[in-house]
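ARCHIVE CARD
CATEGORY: sequence design from structure
SOURCE FIELD: tokenized fold
FIELD CONTENT:
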């Protein structure tokens, strides 16, 4: 006899979407009356906290990727793009393949976990010329750019052109910016030893932060410690300064100065996925406003979490920060509430206090704030690696990353440029990612 299956559709395979799907599989995967579908642009889950280590050649690109089909055994996986969401008809328009073949996915329960995109604040030339650090292709492209510029600078006769190639600017002094600038600085200063015509003194790495301190999310003392360590290692830090524009030749700053460079790495802002703008729902700063159960008011059966949801902490009255530790726990709460909606049970609110925040700042040093206690130096770096290694899905990947880190203690980093004009090729050719158009 035909049964009307309950259709649960999850949009996005980041921390929020993936952990929602995994929790639903555990509790509903064997139920023949429920169909779970995850829609994601790639067929893998990217462990973004380790992205800067790929850019700095500390890890192989494939080490921080997990095939979604190995993480989800029962859910349907749709690899493609979300084109539109129709909340009234309860359908999602998606497409896949080179020809963007269209499909419609009907749903009874919809989970929106589409994440965020880089926000360039309409600054002239920044979107066109800057590099970002949000995807695997971003990290591999950055590493390739750094090696390409070292190769070119090694035989560059014009000092001005060589300086242009050897100058790297990172915009944004938060976690992503600090970890990126630390990794890039270490990589360049280690790599330059292998170039006969280059010297370490030729390297210029600049961190631009519009606020009064780096790592504003942490205690002031940790921000000061991180800035001092980076400065001693040759990073030039420009506080209370912002990027105002970029050309092919230079980055212009808010203090009226400019820095001649080809490479600006943009980590200075994010915005919710543009698809949310078309939804007739209440929003705050472009994010979908949800209730304490992570459900969109007035849209029963539609849930949002992670970077694209405005989730207010009932105790502080502030919005929860868009971090991985929050997103994965939100995913578990959404899964519980979706099951409650399907089976007519009681829902539960999302309540969570940040356990801690950590940042790696290069050369086996870090800063951390864990359970109200500050840590810095080697112990904080060790905590960063230990905690994120434990959070990395699947034993296979944990072993690969641990092995890579161990080998890094004895061997220098590879100076191999991976071309990304057509595709990024990872170890063994097992993973290929097309470059952005």
């Amino acid at each position: 006899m035909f049964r009307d299956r309950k259709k649960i559709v999850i949009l996005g395979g980041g921390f929020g979407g993936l952990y929602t799907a995994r929790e639903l599989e555990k509790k509903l995967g064997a139920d023949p009356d429920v169909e779970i579908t995850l829609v994601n642009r790639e067929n893998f889950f990217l462990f973004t906290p380790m992205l800067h280590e790929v850019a700095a050649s500390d890890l192989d690109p494939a080490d921080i990727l997990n095939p979604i089909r190995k993480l989800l055994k029962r859910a349907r996986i749709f690899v493609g793009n979300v084109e539109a969401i129709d909340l009234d008809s309860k359908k999602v328009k998606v497409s896949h393949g080179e020809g963007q073949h269209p499909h419609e996915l009907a749903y009874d329960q919809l989970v929106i976990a589409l994440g965020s995109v880089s926000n360039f604040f309409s600054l002239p030339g920044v979107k066109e010329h800057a590099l970002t650090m949000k995807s695997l292709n971003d990290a591999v492209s950055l590493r390739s750019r750094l090696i390409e510029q070292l190769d070119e600078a090694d035989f560059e006769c014009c000092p001005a052109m060589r300086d242009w190639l050897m100058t790297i600017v990172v915009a944004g002094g938060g976690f992503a910016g600090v970890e990126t600038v630390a990794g890039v600085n270490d990589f360049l200063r280690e790599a330059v030893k292998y170039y006969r015509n280059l010297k370490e003194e030729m390297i210029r790495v600049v961190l631009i932060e519009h606020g009064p301190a780096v790592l504003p999310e942490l205690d002031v003392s940790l921000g000061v410690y991180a800035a001092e360590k980076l400065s001693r290692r040759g990073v030039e830090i420009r506080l209370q300064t912002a990027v105002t524009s970029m050309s092919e030749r230079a980055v212009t700053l808010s203090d009226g100065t400019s820095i001649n460079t080809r490479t600006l790495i943009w980590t200075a802002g994010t915005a919710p996925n543009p698809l949310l703008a078309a939804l007739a729902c209440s929003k705050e700063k472009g994010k979908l406003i949800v209730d304490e159960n992570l459900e969109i008011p007035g849209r029963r059966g539609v849930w949002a979490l992670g970077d694209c949801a405005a989730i207010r902490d009932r105790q502080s009255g502030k919005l929860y920060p868009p971090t991985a530790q929050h997103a994965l726990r939100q995913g578990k709460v959404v899964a519980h509430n979706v099951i409650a909606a399907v089976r007519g049970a009681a829902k539960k609110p999302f309540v969570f206090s940040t356990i801690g925040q950590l940042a790696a700042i290069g050369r086996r040093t870090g800063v951390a704030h864990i359970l109200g206690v500050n840590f810095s130096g080697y112990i904080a770096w060790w905590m960063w690696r230990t905690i994120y290694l434990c959070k990395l899905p699947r034993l296979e990947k944990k072993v690969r990353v641990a092995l890579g880190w161990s080998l890094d203690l004895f061997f220098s980093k590879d100076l191999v440029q991976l071309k990304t004009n057509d595709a990024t090729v990872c170890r063994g050719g097992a993973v290929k990612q097309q470059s952005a158009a």
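CARD ANNOTATION: The longest strand covers residues 34-40. The two ends are 48 Å apart (CA to CA).
SHELF: design records, drawer C
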